[in-house]
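ok trying again, last paste got cut off:
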Amino acid sequence: MWGDKMVDSTMREIQRHGNITFPIAAYEWHASEENYMRLECHRHSEWEFFSMISGSAYVSVDGVRKLLSAGDVALFHGGSLHMAEAESNLPFKYRAVVFHPNIVYGLGDIVQTKYIIPFEENRLNVNPFMIQSEIGGNVVSIFNKLYSLITETPPVYEIFGKACLYEMLATIFSLSGEFDEKSSANYCHSKKIKEIISYINHNYASPITVRELAEMANMSQGHFTRLFKRFTAKSPIDYLIGVRLSKALAMLCDTDEKLINIAVDTGFNSMSYFIRMFNAYFGCSPSKYRKSNAI
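nice, full thing came through this time. structure:
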């Protein structure tokens, strides 16, 4: 499930956060008994501070995975693939502050040129996790102050909010050591997986095999499959089916196309396979879904 986020088939969130003059917003998400398992893998151009309020979950940022508990905070840079999976199938609750990096840009000063721009371009080796037990409770108090400022909007909250953002960024940069440009295998893998995701989303209607995708990534099928699942929590085939089904959902709701045409146009090689996969993912047949969502 996606919580209250709007996400397109490329895993890119399409929701606007804040407004053009102050592009920042705060959110809270509390999983219900029916959907507490996972915050699905997605990405967006904005940056996001993610704070665990209760429970615990494995949080992944571009394939780097860490168990976060109450009081721990993570930073998702723009374009990163990130997700959260409940530990031991127990509910968890989080708060998030999502903001456009323009809000922390300076006037060409050293903060912008040494830290903000390289981080925005994903060129820095920055540890995305701030674990309370390792760095103390200061970071969560700063986050909570930031969250309250954004949600309650007291006088001059914009100035205090920017001050909190800078303090949060200073904390996470200070924990990351030297600021050499990225040369790690994980950075290269992240770029490759995003390229494969883009390819799938542009070619979902054509026959696509794991072998073909692995060759594009210059990897063995086994290594590619493991890496893809580490970044997205899905196998390449499951992700491909998910993309095709999301396109089929849109056609069912927005067009009068026959089911067989929808199946073909979204890359399914047979009507029976389309119906079987649709039912497995959504718990009903395509025709029943169309009837229940008819206007």
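cool. The domain at 185-292 is CATH 1.10.10.60 (Arc Repressor Mutant, subunit A). DSSP finds eleven helices and nine strands in the chain.
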